Amino acid sequence: MSQMCESETPEDQVVEILSRLPPKSLMRFKCIRKSWCTIINSSSFVAKHLNNSIDNKLSSSTCILLNRCQVHVFPDRSWKQEVFWSMINLSIDSGEKNFHYDVEDLNIPFPMEDQDNVELHGYCNGIVCVIVGKNVLLCNPATGEFRQLPNSSLLLPLPKGRFGLETIFKGMGFGYDCKAKEYKVVRIIENCDCEYSEGEESYYERILLPHTAEVYTMTANSWKEIKIDVSSDTDPYCIPYSCSVYLKGFCYWFACDNGEYIFSFDLGDEIFHIIELPSRREFDFKFYGIFLYNESITSYCSRYEEACKLFEIWVMDDYDGVKGSWTKLLTVGPFKDIDYPLTLGKCDEILMLGSYGRAAFCNSSTGNLKPYHLCCFESIESSLVFFSLICVD
User: Fold this and answer.
1) Within-domain flag for 126
2) Domain-ending residue, one of 249, 276, 303
3) Where is the chain membrane-spanning (predicted)?
């Protein structure tokens, strides 16, 4: 069969073929022809490639992005850290219920100093929001490409005198604005007036002020300040945030101060909301985090029974990013040496993470726990190793 030349290949066929290739192949094909590079970089192609990737995923697969920072301390007390990235692909044979995993080490050339920390703060459509030192980056782990965001206009240097405004980073979310059809990053800042005095009577006083926030848009490549205006019985001046979860135009955080709740942000309207969690205080359960399951926000709570943990998993129903009802999905345990659930697999298997580099799959129907040792976790328990991971399935 004679080879088809470029003039005989319709552009829509080229797009269809390219959209079914893995990201690493696309990076190579960018260099073959300028027209292919233009196609691959277009927003319509990115959306088509993402849809094909989702459709082609095995129904029993789960993917986790793992970041590890290994600190090396030298005899002269100087130190240096190395950052390692891995993609962990987990799968379960739907017939035999056998668990399999493979680890792909990633090379992401972040601009960073030896002592910079690396933190994962959100995931959406194959892109991860990362903080490296004082810089915020958007990264595609599959290709190694990244974009460094401009500096914040709200995070100020530490005050040098006796008085000053102290600003502290408290949380970040990343996702896709379905209305404007663009990616956004939201950052939450804690503010306080500080007074410090040295002398016979030294003292340090902090007066908490309302939190502020800023939103970054990729098209403008800049930050703009927005207000946090929520009506709730929770204390708006003391809100710790977890890694964000993105779903259908909203960013969600698990938060706690006087109680546990979910903080949400509408990326389209750029408005914050508070969503109440189920009340479980009478049973000594406490909520600790959220994750995604079947395109629903899912939260888990636990309590100790002697040296073991009992877990409840709740799913939010009929929600619109502002409010919703909760249904208890299941109760599992008690388990020993299990810290928390990371995600609920597509074959109704719960991925549980524990101590000493251990992971386990729990069958949601029988409650049986199958422990596995993941070699990529084996050095995590060292006191000089720090890690963060995020489910990107």
Assistant:
1) yes
2) 276
3) none
Give yes or no: residues 17 and 137 share one domain.
no
Identify whether residues 135 and 34 lie together within a single domain.
no
Judge if 209 and 133 occupy the same domain.
yes
Q: Which domain holds residue 175?
A: 114-276
For the full predicted model, state whether its pTM sits above 0.70. Answer: yes
Identify whether 39 is part of a domain: yes
Q: Does 23 share its domain with 119?
A: no
* Same domain, residue pair 13 and 126: no
Domain co-membership, 21 together with 145 = no
Per-residue pLDDT of the chain (393 residues; tens, 9 = 90+): 444 444 445 677 777 877 777 666 776 777 777 777 777 777 667 667 666 665 554 345 567 777 777 777 888 887 777 777 777 777 666 555 566 677 777 777 767 665 667 788 888 887 888 888 788 989 887 777 788 999 888 888 777 666 778 888 888 999 999 888 889 999 998 888 877 666 656 656 777 788 889 999 988 899 999 988 765 555 544 455 667 889 889 999 988 766 788 888 999 999 998 888 887 656 778 888 888 887 888 898 888 888 888 888 898 887 666 667 888 888 888 888 888 887 776 666 787 877 666 777 777 777 677 766 555 555 444 333 344 556 665
Domain co-membership, 266 together with 118: yes
Q: Which residue reads 């980056």 in tokens?
A: 137
Residue where one domain finishes, among candidates 41, 57, 73: 57
Here the tokens at position 146 are 């990244």
Q: Say if 322 falls within a structural domain.
A: no
